[in-house]
Amino acid sequence: MRHKKMSDSPLNGWRIVVTRAQEQSGTITEQLSNLGATVINIPTIEICPPATWAEIDAAIQKISSYDWLIFTSTNGVDFFFRRLRELNATLPPRLKVCAVGKITAGRLNAIGINVDLTPTENRGEGLFEALKETIGDDRLSKMRFLFPRAQEGREELPDGLRQLGALVDVVEAYRTVLPAFDKNEITKRFGNGVDLVVFSSPSSVKNLAAMLGESFNEVLDNAHIACIGPTTSEQANRFGLHVVIEPAEQNSAKLVEEIVNFRLRNAG
User: Fold this and answer.
1) What CATH topology corresponds to 15-45+179-265?
2) Global pTM?
3) Class of CATH domain 57-175
4) Do domains 15-45+179-265 and 57-175 have the same CATH topology?
5) Distance (Å, rounded) from C-alpha 181 to C-alpha 113?
6) pLDDT tens, residue by residue, 124-167
7) Which of 46, 99, 187, 210 is buried deepest, with most CB atoms within 10 A?
8) Can you tell me whether residue 263 is helix, strand or coil?
């Protein structure tokens, strides 16, 4: 049997913790495993429907009153259109759709929804600037936006639009909650040594900190930190972590590519 070289399996020997929700970790787990890594899945997020559909139902009932529909995640897309179908409702032809990130836009395209605007910067601030450039400050003041998202989210985008006079309805389309966990078991899984911890959202950082408690920084002290994008990196920094990997594009393929590049640069 031919033994694989580092170039064949660039992540061989590395133990990597993936913190994504269990139902969303398959792709990156497979990519990392195929490159030789030992992947330890520690889901820090459980994705659930909203506590009540009342808020989003009310928005759907008046969907024709909106000018723009905003999506910043595939979860927002999935839960919003699930509820739209359950209510036998459709999007009015005049309603424009904007999405943050190619992955979110791709999910919309996959279900037959045309995306009118995708910013080059994959975060709310980038969409805010793109909307201002596309529509103009004066016209924005007359616009109505519907923004289905998680219960907790960053307020820069809706606040920025409101400051320009726009009406923005932020509705809870789903929740990201802390899954049931055993702290001792999670600590034990780190105990054999971890080379890299991968965070894919600010909530994944916050929730792992909650799971590990006071030992959070000690447990992660010798591990490299990879984050999917700047918002997640900012949260990691707030918890005292030093982020060494952050891809220019916020998707799993680019994140894995940067992980490999980092390993190869630091192989010795």
Assistant:
1) Rossmann fold (3.40.50)
2) 0.81
3) alpha beta
4) yes
5) 38
6) 777 888 888 888 888 888 899 999 998 777 788 899 899 999 99
7) 99
8) helix
